[in-house]
Amino acid sequence: MTHGSLFSGIGGFELAARWCGFTNVFSCELEPFNRRVLHHHFPESDLHNDIKEMDATQYHGRVDIISGGFPCQPYSVAGKRLGKEDERHLWPEMLRIIREVAPAYVVGENVRGLVNWSEGMVFEEVCADLEAEGYDVQPFILPAAGVGAPHKRDRVWFVAYSNNRRAGREVSAGRDEFTGGTERNATNTQRDGLEHGTERRGVSQSEREARQRVAGHITSKSWAGFPTESPVCGGDDGLPAELDGITFPKWRANSIKAYGNAIVPQVAYQIFDTIKQMNQ
Q1: Which of 20, 28, 72, 127 is catalytic?
Q2: Active-site residue flag, 28
Q3: Could you report the per-residue pLDDT of 127-136, keeping only the tens digit for each?
Q4: What is the pTM of this model?
């Protein structure tokens, strides 16, 4: 399968895609330091700069999955929470790229605060926009601790599957396989259930055990013997030494900022691996 990444940072999504055997087609990242890391570790991927200037029509029909942790600062409790008034509210740009590429899957990530910011306005906007483009959308709150990380780090993940790219499958079967037959209904009650971590889909015992085996395989490469009092380093966020090792002392501040903004690739791997299994 093929993968394109937006707001790529230092390549957490790219790394998860590589673990799954996917081909990284493009990345898009504004920060110069992050672009150097991306170019070093993922030279096979086209590297774009400003998403506002990116023309993605060249990738139309060539990319199966688009991922992106669209900037969280407008909604994070650590910031001013200006929301859509913040110049870093870039979900509309990500939506434009999705329209231009028309991928089969979209995987979006943001801070948990997005769920309740302004009574869920942007959370609902993301879901509604994807649905308007013909995607079935399932949001999840997944913590980094769920894959063995030494910290909780709740994040909201949007997983969407295009009705237009089902490749001859039964529509209901494709949805049921991924979401357990549960469709999203944008009501305050269901959003509150999501925010408080309510289980939203049925998972069989065999599926749960299979996921645990995969999680154990991946996390064993990152957190085995990791201290419970986390140091300031990439390992805290599940980033292996291969990504962390490019850091030089003069880039320390850039590195710490990149760690803080990075996704935990082990969580993305779980999502990508499920998509991979669905397409085998």
Answers
A1: 72
A2: no
A3: 999 999 999 9
A4: 0.73
